[in-house]
Design goal:
Elements (H helix, E strand, L loop, with lengths): L3 E3 L7 H10 L2 E8 L7 E11 L1 H4 L17 E11 L5 E10 L8 H25 L12 H18 L5 H10 L1 H9 L5
Antiparallel strand pairs: 1-2, 2-3, 3-4, 4-5
Length: 192
């Protein structure tokens, strides 16, 4: 998570405060400012989590089924503001989310941490599968072959991660030139 947090809470007019208090609405907010640039940019992340039972009971009413989603607890607004270090250009990205976690289980700071964890998994696994192992360019499409190849890719990543290897692309190149090292990794012991 980040080094600094502030509340970022909006100032509500008194009538809105009374209305929310009567309905049992809670709003939690967090603003996250990392102290240093990452990937050549500074990023400010903010999340507002609104737990409004009246609104949550109506989420999904307007959909095709016309029925509310029974487990919706909080509505979230996520704002990411990125400033590129060299150019100074700032980009703003806003997204929304719905969660079944109650405010007691996950306030805004916890929800922001969960979102960050999700993207670390996305970047750590799916990027490696798609770019390093070429899943996006794969032309296998018939029968069970796509699933079998996906299992092989996942097994490859798991073996390399368990061996403590950080740079999978470099290790794949090394093992391509040294089949004995690859067999040792798969079999788990030294072959003579």
């Amino acid at each position: 998570m980040a080094d600094r947090h502030d509340t970022g809470a909006p100032v509500l007019p008194p009538w809105k405060q009374r209305d929310w208090q009567e309905r049992g609405v809670t709003l939690t907010t967090v603003v996250d400012y990392p102290n240093k640039a990452a990937h050549g940019r500074y990023e400010r992340r903010a999340l507002w989590a609104l737990a409004d039972p009246w609104q949550a009971a109506r989420i999904g009413d307007g959909g095709h089924a016309g029925r509310p989603w029974p487990h919706a607890q909080q509505l979230c607004r996520i704002e990411r503001r990125r400033t590129h270090q060299q150019t100074g250009v700032t980009n703003l990205e806003v997204s929304y989310a719905i969660t079944s976690l109650s405010p007691a289980k996950a306030d805004a700071a916890r929800l922001l941490a969960l979102l960050r964890d999700y993207w670390s998994i996305e970047n750590r696994l799916h990027y490696v599968r798609d770019v390093t192992l070429g899943e996006g360019l794969c032309q296998i499409r018939c029968g069970a072959a796509p699933q079998a190849v996906a299992v092989c890719r996942n097994l490859t990543i798991a073996l390399l991660r368990r061996a403590g290897i950080a740079n999978i692309a470099q290790t794949l190149r090394t093992h391509a030139a040294r089949p004995r090292a690859a067999a040792t990794l798969v079999l788990g012991y030294y072959l003579e």
